[in-house]
Amino acid sequence: MQKLTIAELFEESSSDTMSYRGKIVRSIVRIPVADGALVTLERLSVASPRPQAIKFGLNNGVLDINGYRGPEIALWSHNCPATVEMRVRGSNASILEVWNAWSMGGVDTSWIGNAGIVTKSSAEGEILQCSDGLDHASFSDLVVRVNVG
Questions:
Q1: What is the pLDDT of residues 71-127, one digit of tens each?
Q2: Rounded Cα gap, residues 56 and 53, in angstroms
Q3: Which of 39, 51, 74, 79 has the fewest Cβ atoms surrounding its Cβ within 10 A?
Q4: How far is CA 135 from the centre of its chain?
Q5: Residue 82 belongs to what domain range?
């Protein structure tokens, strides 16, 4: 019997959250936000030879980061500062969606293979331990902390 990948297990379960080898794994993390909220991303570690990214999507409104405003932003491990702040703009903004991505031969890739996120709450925010879709699930390819204040 061939083992299913995490992406196949998500698809089979029709859910974005599941138990995998004793861990709660998510394909996407949803964080409540409001207009004016300050979102801080702190990159804690990268253990993959591939460029890794954290992507943010806002259900309504835009994210404002260093003068760029858009409903979705990707912050890559190889070309963004270790700590980044962005502001939520939009009176109807309520959910910030966060997921991981990686570069495969220059192609921005998400949600395939063994991709998934294990979360841990801390006093300083949510720690997201990300596994890219390649190789076995390690949940150490990219580790970040997201804080909403």
A1: 999 999 999 999 999 999 999 999 999 999 999 888 999 999 999 999 999 999 999
A2: 10
A3: 79
A4: 19
A5: 6-148
Cβ burial, residue 78 (10 Å; 0-12/13-18/19+): exposed
Which tokens hold the place of 57? 């999507």
CATH number at residue 114: 2.60.120
Closest to 25 (Cα-Cα) out of 101, 145, 114: 114
Give the pairing of strands 116-122 and 52-58: unpaired
Average pLDDT, the chain: 95
What per-residue confidence (pLDDT) applies to 1?
53
Q: How long is the chain? A: 149
In a domain, 80, yes or no: yes
Q: Is the dihedral of CA 45, 53, 28, 66 positive or negative?
A: positive
